[in-house]
Description:
Blueprint: E1 9-10, E2 19-20, E3 32-39, E4 47-54, E5 60-69, E6 75-78, E7 84-87, E8 92-100, E9 110-117, E10 120-121, E11 124-125, E12 128-135, E13 146-147, H1 160-166, E14 168-171, E15 176-178
Amino acid sequence: GGTGDDNVYYKNYNATSWTDAAVDLDGGAGSSSDISADLDGQPNNESIHIAFKNSTDSDVSYCKLAVTRSAANTISSIGSCTLFDIDTYDNTARPSLIIANKGEGAGKEKVAIAWASNPLSGGTKQGEIRFLQCDVADGCDVAAEWKNASEANSGTMPSAAETRVSADFIELHTGRYANA
């Protein structure tokens, strides 16, 4: 986590200390927490994909950081990201991100994010797990590029109501799976 621009550090294989990449994941608003990240499989053009929760509003946010490498394959810099809110419903928690099918190319390599959401219905928490995915080749920086598991619905975030409609979710209190 951290505040300010102290969210991303890296250490090259031949280094003795960590380097502050001076990247601010949350745009200076509070601190980022529950950070989950993975590298995609794009050779010579790899990116770090990150999902996290912003402490000031509990949004589940996503960003992609470009990694620049030297001829010796060491990291020379990590670019800043444009913040994209996956879910702005203020009862979100614990985002988890993974890159599936690494190195398989356009249409196959996917960013997948799952997170907890505890919306209230009649005073009772519903305990949902929500999921969206995006094709790495699409860029993943606009809502229309994010899809549910079947890729039938696109994520029209950042509206919380629209996220609930387009993301897959599991209602834990009833054990019922839904794609609403």
